[in-house]
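[Amino acid chain]
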Amino acid sequence: MKLYTKTGDKGKTHVIGGRVDKDDIRVQCYGTIDELNSFIGLALAELEDERFRDIGSELLKIQHELFDCGSDLAYLSPNGENKLKEDAIGFLEERIDAYSAEAPELKKFILPGGSKASAYMHVARTVARRAERLAVALMKAADLRETPLRYLNRLSDYLFAAARVINFRMNIKDVEYERSAIVFKGKQRGGN
């Protein structure tokens, strides 16, 4: 199989149901999801230690779900059911709650970083937020189900919570943003 097709040389690409420009919002959205998947793979490569078996298996599951999400977004018009299922969102919420309970209480904004694995998770989190913003823009321009958008929103929170747990299990403290007021009271959330 050849990796090049020569069909994209004029700035067009195939999506499910037709062809679009390579800078089409749909292509930007699922391309960003591909970028996100790559950063998750990078984080996963840093988590071979037994302490992270749970997070590692979850990240592998998430990588498959991101392929489903990208596939769902590649349809010019939705037909049939999404590959990405609603229960994937519920799973992320369960894991966010578990990791929020495991990590130290969060009161202030923290700086991304700590261990290399945690830093990669924070990069993935920011890419997930960009993918979410692009999905919002795509929803304004095209008929799109809400499952991919909701999934990306929860995924960024999951990545934040897991990044904190990775540092915690490695005995690395989060670095609080020094000019942060106390912003988290009761709930420990990673985003919005």
